[in-house]
């Protein structure tokens, strides 16, 4: 008799979004930056440390009934550059796409420079970073011009 | 034309300008220098608001003089009043107020990016007069104009920049400005903890500026046409002993220049200087920093007339 001990029972979803190929351990972080109002009340599965041919191990996030748009999912690449987005309808994958960082990211990343205007306590100014290199990811603060990588990056707010 | 690219524009970063923009500015500054400008009234009825959150004498007075020589008026505050007058008010509201009262805002602030942010709020032009360690574009306009006036050209020169290259905003702006021209080479001289910041290096590399970095001025002094000196501050060193050890190596004396420098070397400095240049140099032919400071007025006059789109 054969058993499949590594198989987790997570059913296929009827419709919604599957974020696949997330590097193992990053799934929770990906989940945490999704817009709360968009996914609130939906059935969500976070599957961690699944065997993967490409990554060895990976995480997967499944969200029922929600179709995440490209501009929302693209920012996932800050945390999980290998992630793929599958839009599901009627148990079928109708769109499959890779995440790709946009050339400008507003209001999501905290600037690590303490004397940047975006860190002034009482100013209503959102951070804004320009993508200056994709591999490795390098971003430049539009205000103080500091260049940062994804290592140690602090995300504030949601997508 | 260059004329169009200044009109109504914010002056935030020198990287927002082209070589021909700066040449337009230089031509305008030169014609202002030659004409007797007392009584020019082209900016009559215009008001400049000075918002200086950080102490400055030279830049503030030079903007004030430039505006008044053009017949305009000046309002505003300097750091001393800023702490009491603006009690608790944020920069956003201060800029809104000044924008409503004036036709142009000149801002100095201790935080990087403050000028860019102010420009997003204000409808009228904002001029960056220094934002933290980031930039000081009008200083580099006058720095380059000084070199242009001294040598007739910027292309082909060997330009040394020495001192605190990491925190001095004048160094960042001057480096960006030099990428618009073709100096033969730029030599950066600084102790290891105060070398150029990553973003400045990246920008000058991307724009193809030819440069080399050195620890010691002795290694390059004989090559230089221009030496731009900025102060090294003790507070910038994580280890005060390190400061004590290196400070002497970044001081310029007349003996050193006479022994090593080219006869026609010119020394520039954004001022105020403390002890990084020996007072004996002040009276030598190498000194060009007082001339440089003087040119601050015609350059800022030229800039204001271009921003307001008036002929002189
Ligand atoms: Zn910043």
Q: Any chance you could write out the topology, listing elements then pairs?
A:
The complex is a heterodimer of chains A (159) and B (312).
Chain A: E1 16-23, H1 27-33, H2 36-39, E2 44-52, E3 56-64, H3 70-73, E4 84-89, E5 92-98, E6 104-106, E7 128-133, E8 138-141, E9 147-148
Antiparallel strand pairs in A: 1-3, 1-4, 2-3, 4-5, 6-7, 7-8, 8-9
Chain B: H1 2-6, H2 19-34, E1 47-52, H3 58-69, E2 73-77, H4 79-85, H5 91-101, E3 104-109, H6 114-121, E4 126-131, H7 137-151, E5 158-162, H8 169-178, E6 185-189, H9 198-206, E7 211-214, E8 226-229, H10 240-246, H11 254-260, E9 266-268, H12 279-282, H13 289-308
Parallel strand pairs in B: 1-2, 1-3, 3-4, 5-6, 5-8, 6-7, 8-9
Residues 111, 113, 116, 118, 141, 143-144, 146 of chain A line the site of zinc ion.
Précis, in short:
The complex is a heterodimer of chains A (159) and B (312). Chain A has 159 residues and is mainly beta.
């Amino acid at each position: 008799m054969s058993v499949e001990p590594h198989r987790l029972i997570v059913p296929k979803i009827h419709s919604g979004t599957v974020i696949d190929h997330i590097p193992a351990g990053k799934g929770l972080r990906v989940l945490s930056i999704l817009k709360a109002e968009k996914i609130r009340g939906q059935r969500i599965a976070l599957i961690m440390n699944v065997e993967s041919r490409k990554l060895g191990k990976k995480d997967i996030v499944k969200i029922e009934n929600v179709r995440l748009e490209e501009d929302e999912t693209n920012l996932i690449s800050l945390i999980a550059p290998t992630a793929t987005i599958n839009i599901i309808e009627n148990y079928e994958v109708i769109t499959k796409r890779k995440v790709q960082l946009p050339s400008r990211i507003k209001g999501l990343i905290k600037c690590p420079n303490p004397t940047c205007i975006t860190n002034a306590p009482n100013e209503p100014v959102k951070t804004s970073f320009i993508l200056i290199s994709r591999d490795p990811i390098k971003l430049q603060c539009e205000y103080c011009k500091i260049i940062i990588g994804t290592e140690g990056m602090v995300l504030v707010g949601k997508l | 034309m260059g004329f169009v690219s200044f009109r109504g524009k914010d002056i935030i970063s020198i990287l927002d300008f082209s070589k021909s923009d700066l040449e337009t500015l230089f031509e305008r500054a030169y014609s202002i220098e030659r004409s007797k400008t007392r009584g020019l009234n082209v900016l009559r009825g215009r008001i400049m608001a000075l918002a200086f959150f950080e102490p400055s004498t030279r830049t503030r007075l030079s903007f004030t003089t430039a505006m008044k020589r053009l017949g305009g008026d000046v309002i505003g505050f300097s750091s001393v009043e800023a702490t009491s007058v603006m009690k608790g008010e944020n920069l956003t509201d201060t800029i809104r107020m000044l924008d409503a009262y004036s036709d142009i805002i000149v801002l100095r602030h201790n935080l990087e990016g403050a000028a860019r942010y102010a420009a997003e709020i204000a409808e009228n032009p904002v001029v960056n007069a220094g934002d933290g360690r980031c930039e000081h574009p009008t200083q580099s306009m006058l720095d380059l104009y000084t070199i242009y006036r001294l040598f007739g050209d910027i292309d082909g020169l060997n330009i040394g920049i020495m001192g605190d290259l990491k925190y001095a905003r004048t160094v960042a702006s001057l480096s960006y400005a030099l990428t618009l021209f073709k100096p033969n080479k730029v030599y950066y001289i600084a102790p290891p903890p105060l070398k150029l910041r990553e973003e400045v290096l990246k920008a000058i590399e991307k724009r193809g500026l030819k440069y080399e970095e050195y620890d010691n001025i002795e290694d390059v002094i004989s090559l230089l046409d221009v030496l731009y000196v900025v102060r090294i501050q003790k507070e910038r060193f994580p280890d005060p002993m390190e400061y004590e050890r290196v400070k002497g190596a970044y001081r310029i004396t007349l003996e050193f220049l006479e022994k090593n420098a080219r006869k026609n070397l010119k020394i520039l400095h954004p001022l105020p200087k403390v002890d990084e240049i020996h007072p004996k140099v002040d009276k030598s032919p190498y000194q060009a920093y007082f001339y440089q400071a003087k040119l601050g007025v015609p350059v800022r006059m030229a800039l204001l007339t271009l921003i307001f789109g008036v002929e002189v």
